[in-house]
Structure to design on (1034 residues):
C-alpha cells in the first residue's frame, strides 16, 4: 500500500482551509401529480477534510437527493435553493459544463449498484483510464493512464490487476465491480467522496471488504467522505460524525459515539432499537416504528415524526422543532422538544428505545418447552444433492461441466422450531429451498416432509402435503399477483384446496387481522400497499392453510430497518401463537440470531457448521462462520472499533469447479497459517461434519473456537 | 402488546396519498369485486365510453336498421338510379337502383361480425398457444413454435386469394377461420416471451407451490398479467381483420356476391368516389369510424385493467381542478 501513495500527487490548487463541503439551508423540490414534493427542506451540514460523515435515514428521507444536489446530478425539473459550497466555492447556479470539471476530479461518487455504474461495452481498465483522461487529458498520455488504471485496480485489491483490467464488467463479481467503481472514484485524488449505499447490494463478507477499502481510499487520498446508508450498523465503526435524516431534514447530528449511546430524538432511538443485535444472546425486544414516512407534498405543521412518535404531546403538532444543542454539547444537536425527558431516562441506547416504544420480548411457544427430541420432525433432509448440467452447442448439445449447486446437505427441523440457513449468495440456499418446495424426487439423497419421503409420493399425496408447507418470498413486489385484489391473493390457496366459499369469506378477514392489516383493505390491489404491508399479505397467504412448516426466503432483506423489525416481530408472534416451524433463509446473521433456534451455515453447497444458535454464534468452530460473524457490523461504535475483523479474500469459487478437499480452503485464513503437512490434509481430504459440542457440528479438520463478537 | 402494527394506519398507502377516489372511499366491510372496480375505472375514461357507445350503436344500426328500412340490399328501385340521398333513399342509390342504406348496413353487418370473430379467435389462439409453449417448454414448445414459424412464412393474402374459388358459395365462416388462422402467430410469439419472464415471478412460483394446477396458473396468473397486451392486440386485430376482409373483398377474393361487405362496396364504388361521392363515402366513413371507436375502447380497457396505470386517476384530478375553478 505504501508504494501506491506516491501515485497521488499534491492537488493542483492550493488546499483551502476549512471544510471541504458546506451545505447551508438546502431546499430541493420536484414536481409531481399531487403537488411539489419537498424532498429536502432546509438541510445544513459540513464535511472537513479527512472526515467521514454518515447520513442515515429511511428510504424517501431525502438523503440521496441531497447528495445528488451536491454532485449537480438532479433532473432539470428539480428546484434547488440554499447554498452548497465546495472548498469555499459556490456550486449552485453553475452550469453543467462547469460542474463537470469538478465532478469526478474533485468530488467523486460511488453508487449503490455497481453493475449499472459501469458501462458494459468497455473494459474495466479503459473506463478507469477514461476517468483520468477526461480530467487530465493534456497532462497524461493514454499509456500512462492505462498503467495508472492497473495500479489503481491493484490498490483496491483486485488480484492479477494487469490481466483483470482487460476484463468487461460482466466478468467481474459484484464485489469486484464495486472495487472497480471505487478505483474510478479515487482515480483523480478527489477531495470529497460521496458513497450512496455502497454496500447495500453486496454480501456481508464483501461488504466488510468494501468498507475497509473505503477506509483505505480515505487514508490514501485524505478526502472527506459522505457515506449514505439506511443501516446504522454499517456506519458505526466507520463514520466520525452522523446525521440522521427524516422527511427531508436533519433530525439529529453529532459525533458517532454520542448518537449511538445517547440518542436524543425518538426517531433515532427507534432506528437503533429496530436493529437486531448480533452480540445480544438473550431475546431482545425489537422496536418497530409504526406507520410510514409522511408524504412530502403537503406536510402538516408540527414535527413530521409526530404521527409515528410514542412520546408525542400536543405541543409537537404546533411547530416543527429546530435542531437544538443537547446535553450541553455544541456538536450534538437534535430536533425534538422532549430531548430533556429522553436524557432523563435511566436506560441508554437500544434499551431506552424498547422502553419508550413499549416493545416487549415475545413469549416462546408452548411447544418450544418440550425437549427437542420429543417433538415431531417436520422436515428432514438427508444428503440432498442437486446438480445442473452445463451444456454447449446448438444442434448437438454436449455436457461440458456440472454445477454442484447443492452437494449433499442434511438437517432436520422439529415442530415449533426455526432453522436459520445462512451463507453468501451463490452458496445454494435458494436451490435447497426450491428442491424442498418442489416436492419432486431429488437427484440424490432424501427429503422427508412430516415423516413422508418425497421420492415415493404420488400426485395426490403430494398435493395433500402442500397444505402443510407454505412459502414467503423475498421480494414483496414480485410475490403478489398485481392483477388480483388482496382478497383473491389470500383466498387462492384455500380455493386450490377446496375450502367452501363461506369458509373462505370468514377466514380471509381473520388472516388480515392476524397479520395486522385492516380487513377493509381487502378490495385493494397489491400496488397500493407499502413493502412491509405487502410482506404481511404474503405471510397471510402462507398461513391460509394452517401449515406446519413455513419456508421463508429472505423475508425481510428487501425492507427498511424500521419496517423489518415489525415483520420480524410478527413472524415471531405467529410462531409462538400457532406453533409453526420455520425454515428461515437469510444472509443477515443478526436477523437469524434474533429469530432462529438453530442455525446452519452453508458454503458452496455444503453445510459447514450447524447447531443451536447461541452455541454457534458464541463459540463458532469453522473459520468461515467466524469470518461471516466478524463481517457483520454491530451498531455500537465503541465495540465496533475494538473488534478484530476477519476479511475474507476473494469471492466465492464457482460451484462448477469447487476446490478439492475442503471447499473453503482457497479463502481460509486458518488454512493459510498452517504448516504445509497440515495444509495437505485440507487439500486432499474433505472434512466430515463432526460433533463439536452438544447440538453443534462443524466440518473442519482443525476446528477451534474463536471469539469474534 | 404493540407488536402487530399497521403501517397503513397513520400515513395511508401511496395510492391514498395521491388522492385517488378508488382508495379514498372503499366500501366498509365489503370487498369490492374486481369486475366492479374495472367498470368504474373504465367509465371514467370519456373517449373510451364514446367509443363503446359508437360500437354498440353501429351493431344496433347494422342489425336493426335494415328491419326499419323498406328496402332490402337485394331489391332494386327502378325509379331511382344513381340518386343522391333523399327522403326515400337516405343514403342514395347506385347505378342499378339498389338502396345504398340497405347495402351499407348489410356490408357493415358482415364486416363487423367478421372483424370481431377473427380478432377473438386469433387472440385466444395466440394466448393459449403462446402461454402453453412458454409455460411447459420442452416438446410442447418445440412443436407449437414450429407451427408458428411455418405459418409465418406462408404469404397469407396469396393463399386466401388462391383458395377463394374453393369457398365460393360456402359459408362466410370459412373466411373468418382463414383470416384468423393467419393472424395469431406474431402475438403468440410475444405471449410466449412474456410467459417465460412471468413464469419466474414469485407469485407464479407461490401458486405452483400451493398446488395450483398448471392450466389454472396460466388462466389466473399468466394470461391476466398480459391483459394489456392481449387487449391491445385484439383491438388491432379487429381493425386489421376488418381491413384484411375489405382488402380481400375489394379484389373479389373475400365475401362473394350476391352478399356484400364494406370491402365489396368500397371496391365497387371506388371509381365513382369523385363523381357520385355518396356511393363511396358512406361505406368508407363507417369503416373509419368503426376502427377508430374500437381503438378508443381498447385504450380505455387497458387503463382500466392495469392497476398501475395512472391515466384514469390523472384525468380525474384535472376534472376536479376544473370544477373547483
Amino acid at each position: 500500500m505504501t508504494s501506491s501513495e506516491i501515485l497521488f500527487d499534491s492537488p493542483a490548487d492550493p488546499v483551502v482551509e476549512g471544510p471541504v463541503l458546506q451545505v447551508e439551508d438546502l431546499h430541493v423540490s420536484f414536481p409531481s401529480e399531487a403537488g411539489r414534493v419537498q424532498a429536502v427542506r432546509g438541510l445544513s451540514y459540513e464535511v472537513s477534510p479527512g472526515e467521514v460523515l454518515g447520513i442515515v435515514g429511511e428510504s424517501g428521507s431525502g438523503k440521496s437527493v441531497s447528495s445528488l444536489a451536491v454532485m449537480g446530478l438532479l433532473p432539470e425539473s428539480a428546484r434547488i435553493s440554499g447554498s452548497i459550497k465546495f472548498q469555499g466555492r459556490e456550486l449552485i447556479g453553475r452550469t453543467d459544463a462547469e460542474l463537470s470539471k469538478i465532478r469526478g476530479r474533485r468530488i467523486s461518487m460511488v453508487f449503490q449498484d455497481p453493475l449499472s455504474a459501469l458501462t458494459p461495452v468497455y473494459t474495466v481498465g479503459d473506463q478507469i483510464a477514461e476517468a483520468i483522461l477526461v480530467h487530465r487529458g493534456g497532462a497524461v498520455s493514454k499509456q500512462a493512464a492505462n498503467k495508472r488504471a492497473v495500479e489503481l485496480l491493484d490498490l483496491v485489491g483486485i488480484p492479477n490487476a494487469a490481466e483483470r483490467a482487460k476484463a468487461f464488467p460482466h466478468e467481474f463479481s459484484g464485489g469486484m465491480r464495486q472495487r472497480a467503481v471505487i478505483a474510478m472514484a479515487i482515480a483523480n485524488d478527489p477531495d470529497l467522496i460521496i458513497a450512496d449505499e455502497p454496500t447495500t447490494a453486496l454480501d456481508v463478507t464483501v461488504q466488510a471488504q468494501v468498507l475497509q477499502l473505503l477506509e483505505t481510499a480515505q487514508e490514501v487520498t485524505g478526502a472527506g467522505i459522505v457515506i449514505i446508508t439506511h443501516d446504522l450498523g454499517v456506519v458505526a465503526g466507520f463514520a466520525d460524525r452522523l446525521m440522521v435524516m427524516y422527511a427531508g431534514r436533519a433530525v439529529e447530528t453529532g459525533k458517532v459515539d454520542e448518537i449511538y449511546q445517547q440518542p436524543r430524538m425518538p426517531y433515532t432511538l427507534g432506528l437503533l432499537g429496530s436493529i437486531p443485535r448480533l452480540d445480544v444472546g438473550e431475546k431482545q425486544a425489537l422496536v418497530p416504528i409504526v406507520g410510514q414516512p409522511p408524504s412530502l407534498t403537503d406536510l402538516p405543521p408540527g414535527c413530521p415524526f409526530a404521527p409515528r412518535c410514542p412520546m408525542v404531546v400536543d405541543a409537537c403538532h404546533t411547530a416543527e422543532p429546530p435542531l437544538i444543542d443537547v446535553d450541553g454539547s455544541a456538536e450534538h444537536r437534535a430536533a425534538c422538544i422532549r430531548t430533556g425527558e429522553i436524557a432523563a431516562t435511566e436506560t441508554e441506547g437500544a434499551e431506552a428505545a424498547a422502553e419508550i416504544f413499549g416493545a416487549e420480548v415475545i413469549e416462546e411457544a408452548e411447544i418450544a418447552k418440550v425437549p427437542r427430541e420429543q417433538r415431531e420432525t417436520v422436515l428432514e433432509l438427508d444428503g440432498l444433492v442437486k446438480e445442473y448440467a452445463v451444456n454447449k452447442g446448438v444442434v448437438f448439445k454436449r455436457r461440458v461441466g456440472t454445477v454442484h449447486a447443492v452437494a449433499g446437505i442434511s438437517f432436520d427441523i422439529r415442530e415449533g422450531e426455526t432453522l436459520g440457513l445462512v451463507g453468501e449468495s451463490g452458496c445454494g440456499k435458494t436451490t435447497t429451498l426450491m428442491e424442498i418446495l418442489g416436492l419432486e424426487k431429488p437427484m440424490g439423497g432424501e427429503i422427508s416432509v412430516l415423516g413422508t419421503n418425497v421420492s415415493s409420493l404420488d400426485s395426490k399425496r403430494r398435493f395433500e402435503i402442500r397444505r402443510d408447507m407454505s412459502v414467503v418470498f423475498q421480494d414483496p413486489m414480485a410475490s403478489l399477483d398485481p392483477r388480483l385484489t388482496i382478497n383473491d391473493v389470500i383466498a387462492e390457496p384455500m380455493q386450490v384446496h377446496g375450502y367452501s366459499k363461506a369458509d373462505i369469506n370468514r377466514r380471509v378477514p381473520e388472516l388480515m387481522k392476524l397479520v395486522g392489516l385492516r380487513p377493509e383493505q381487502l378490495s385493494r390491489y397489491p400496488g397500493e400497499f407499502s413493502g412491509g404491508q405487502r410482506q404481511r399479505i404474503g405471510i397471510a397467504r402462507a398461513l391460509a392453510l394452517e401449515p406446519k412448516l413455513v419456508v421463508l426466503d429472505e423475508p425481510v432483506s428487501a425492507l427498511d430497518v424500521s419496517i423489518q423489525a415489525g415483520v420480524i416481530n410478527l413472524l415471531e408472534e405467529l410462531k409462538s401463537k400457532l406453533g409453526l416451524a420455520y425454515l428461515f433463509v437469510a444472509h443477515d446473521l443478526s436477523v437469524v440470531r434474533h429469530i432462529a433456534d438453530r442455525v446452519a451455515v452453508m458454503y458452496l453447497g455444503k453445510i459447514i457448521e450447524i447447531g443451536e444458535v447461541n452455541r454457534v454464534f458464541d463459540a463458532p468452530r469453522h473459520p468461515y462462520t467466524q469470518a461471516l460473524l466478524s463481517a457483520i457490523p454491530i451498531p455500537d461504535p465503541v465495540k465496533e472499533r475494538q473488534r478484530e475483523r476477519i476479511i475474507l479474500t476473494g469471492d466465492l469459487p464457482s460451484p462448477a469447479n469447487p476446490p478439492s478437499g475442503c471447499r473453503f480452503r482457497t479463502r481460509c485464513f486458518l488454512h493459510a497459517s498452517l504448516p504445509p503437512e497440515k495444509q495437505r490434509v485440507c487439500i486432499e481430504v474433505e472434512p466430515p461434519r463432526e460433533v463439536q459440542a452438544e447440538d453443534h457440528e462443524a466440518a473442519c479438520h482443525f476446528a477451534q473456537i474463536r471469539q469474534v463478537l | 402488546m404493540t407488536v402487530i402494527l399497521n403501517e397503513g394506519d397513520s400515513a395511508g398507502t401511496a395510492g391514498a396519498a395521491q388522492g385517488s377516489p378508488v382508495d379514498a372511499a372503499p366500501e366498509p366491510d365489503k370487498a369490492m369485486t374486481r369486475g366492479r372496480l374495472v367498470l368504474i375505472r373504465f367509465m371514467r375514461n370519456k373517449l373510451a365510453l364514446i367509443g363503446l357507445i359508437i360500437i354498440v350503436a353501429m351493431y344496433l344500426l347494422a342489425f336493426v336498421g335494415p328491419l326499419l328500412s323498406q328496402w332490402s340490399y337485394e331489391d332494386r328501385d327502378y325509379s331511382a338510379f344513381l340518386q343522391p340521398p333523399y327522403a326515400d333513399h337516405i343514403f342514395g342509390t347506385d347505378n342499378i337502383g339498389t338502396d345504398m342504406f340497405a347495402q351499407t348496413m348489410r356490408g357493415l353487418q358482415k364486416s363487423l361480425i367478421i372483424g370481431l370473430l377473427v380478432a377473438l379467435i386469433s387472440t385466444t389462439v395466440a394466448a393459449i398457444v403462446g402461454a402453453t409453449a412458454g409455460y411447459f417448454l420442452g416438446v410442447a414448445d418445440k412443436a407449437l413454435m414450429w407451427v408458428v414459424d411455418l405459418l409465418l412464412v406462408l404469404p397469407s393474402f396469396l393463399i386466401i386469394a388462391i383458395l377463394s374459388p374453393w369457398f365460393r358459395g360456402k359459408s362466410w365462416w370459412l373466411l373468418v377461420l382463414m383470416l384468423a388462422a393467419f393472424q395469431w402467430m406474431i402475438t403468440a410469439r410475444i405471449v410466449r416471451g412474456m410467459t417465460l419472464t412471468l413464469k419466474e415471478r414469485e407469485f407464479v412460483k407461490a401458486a405452483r407451490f400451493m398446488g395450483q394446477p398448471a392450466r389454472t396458473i396460466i388462466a389466473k396468473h399468466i394470461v391476466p398479467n398480459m391483459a394489456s397486451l392481449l387487449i391491445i392486440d385484439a383491438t388491432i386485430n379487429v381493425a386489421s381483420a376488418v381491413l384484411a376482409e375489405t382488402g380481400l373483398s375489394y379484389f373479389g377474393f373475400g365475401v362473394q356476391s350476391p352478399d356484400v361487405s364494406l370491402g365489396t362496396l368500397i371496391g365497387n364504388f371506388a371509381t365513382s368516389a369523385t363523381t357520385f361521392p355518396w356511393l363511396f363515402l358512406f361505406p368508407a366513413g363507417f369503416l373509419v369510424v368503426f376502427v377508430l371507436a374500437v381503438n378508443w375502447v381498447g385504450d380505455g380497457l387497458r387503463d382500466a385493467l392495469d392497476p398501475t396505470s395512472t391515466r384514469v386517476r390523472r384525468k380525474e384530478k384535472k376534472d376536479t381542478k376544473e370544477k373547483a375553478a
About this structure: Residues 368-468+547-613 of chain A form a domain with the Rossmann fold fold (CATH 3.40.50.300). The first helix of chain A runs from residue 2 to 5. Chain A is about 35% helix and 20% strand.
